[in-house]
Specification:
95 residues, alpha+beta, Alpha-Beta Plaits, two-stranded antiparallel ribbon, 3 helices, 6 strands, 27% helix
């Protein structure tokens, strides 16, 4: 990936993510499926002016959904747990 703005697709604003941000200084992002940990680290450091200590990635698989007789799946997506060593990111102020 060449463009850092295509690596991060947005924050993951869930209860678990907000608890991790408060207790362990971790931020959760929805990232591009082909992005690796190094690209995620560079993108977060450049976009938010923070120091990243660690990046862990995980796949969230699509869930089975049903509408009437039709059965399908939601899309799978990739997320990254980013541990910050210096600085903080507050999404509530930026919305």
């Amino acid at each position: 990936m060449k463009n850092i703005y295509s690596v991060l697709q947005g924050p993951c604003l869930t209860e678990k993510a907000s608890l991790l941000q408060e207790s362990a200084n971790k931020v959760v992002f929805k990232v591009h499926p082909q992005a690796n940990k190094i690209e995620v680290k560079r993108a977060v450091e450049k976009m938010f002016n923070v120091k990243v200590q660690d990046v862990r990635t995980a796949w969230t698989h699509g869930k089975k959904k049903r509408v009437g007789k039709t059965v399908g799946f939601t899309s799978a997506w990739k997320k990254a747990y980013v541990t910050l060593s210096e600085g903080t990111i507050n999404f509530a102020d930026e919305l």
